[in-house]
Amino acid sequence: MASAPRPLVAGNWKMNGLKASRAELGKIIEGAKANPVACDLMICPPATLLESFATVALGSPVAIGAQDCHAEPVGAFTGDISAEMLRDAGASAVIVGHSERRATHRESDADVKAKASAAARAGLMAILCIGETREEREAGATLARIERQLDGSLPDTLDAQKLVIAYEPVWAIGTGLTPTVKDVAEVHAFIRKRLLKGNERTGGAVRILYGGSVKPANARELMGVADVNGALVGGASLKAEDFLGIAAAYR
Ligand code: PGA
């Protein structure tokens, strides 16, 4: 069996952060240098900070990613930012299909697929988010929802360098609630099986992150689950100490 892919711990800062937040990024970089971890690290700040964060992080153990992109490379799309522009600003990855965008910007699986393909076109790694709502979980419809999202939003060709899946139960995001280890294992195994279908060579190398209320206190347990190849962290990534505390699960 192929060895597990190198884990990734990525921080999604959402709509948080001003120029002064470069100091927090600096602490993350210093901490990562002082106490190396056996995983990749990434911070996804708001678009306004991409360029300055990328400059600060250049040559450090911390990569910089974006939070969303438009599917087209250029055009009359007021307020939108293309994957090529994100790359130009110094991003090496972009989150697509986060549940907050699926909910508030009505993004469909087809939209998310187009964005993931745009990321690959621009040379960015897409962190593609999927996850069930509380109602779906309670109705026993979790795996059906995950399957629909994967069928509708996975790019046609899988490239493990250009694609990461993040399983984020919507009800676990920002709530302090997390699924049981057994439930995480079930969904991650299901996703892995789907990735391997027709992609025996690359499906095993695509990283599957868990996201939703990951904290230093629960990181080790969640990251220890089979087929969990890292974390997508929201609130706890805003503080260097917490973010590094989570990454320490890989020490
Ligand atoms: P949270 O957010 O860690 O604050 O729950 C996770 C996410 O939305 O990616």
Task: List the SSEs and their pairings.
Blueprint: E1 8-12, H1 22-34, E2 40-44, H2 50-57, E3 62-66, H3 83-88, E4 93-96, H4 99-104, H5 109-122, E5 125-130, H6 134-138, H7 142-153, E6 163-167, H8 181-196, E7 207-211, H9 216-223, E8 230-233, H10 240-247
Parallel strand pairs: 1-2, 1-8, 2-3, 3-4, 4-5, 5-6, 6-7, 7-8
Helix pairs in contact: 1-2, 1-10, 5-7, 7-8, 9-10
This protein binds 2-phosphoglycolic acid.
The spatial strand order of the largest sheet comes to 1-2-3-4-5-6-7-8
Shape: globular
CATH names the topology as TIM Barrel
CATH hierarchy: architecture: Alpha-Beta Barrel
* Average pLDDT over all residues: 97
Order of helices and strands: EHEHEHEHHEHHEHEHEH
- Sheet bearing the most strands, described? 8 strands, parallel, barrel
What is the SS-derived class? alpha/beta
Can you offer a commentary on this structure?
The chain has 251 residues and is α/β, with parallel strands linked by helices. The protein has a single domain, classed as TIM Barrel, CATH 3.20.20.70. Helices cover 38% and strands 16% of the residues. The protein is built from ten helices and eight strands. 46% of the residues are buried. The mean pLDDT is 97. The structure holds 2-phosphoglycolic acid (PGA). 2-phosphoglycolic acid binds next to strand 8.
Defining traits:
251 residues, alpha/beta, TIM Barrel, eight-stranded parallel β-barrel, 8 strands, globular, binds 2-phosphoglycolic acid
Short description:
This protein is α/β, with parallel strands linked by helices and 251 residues long.
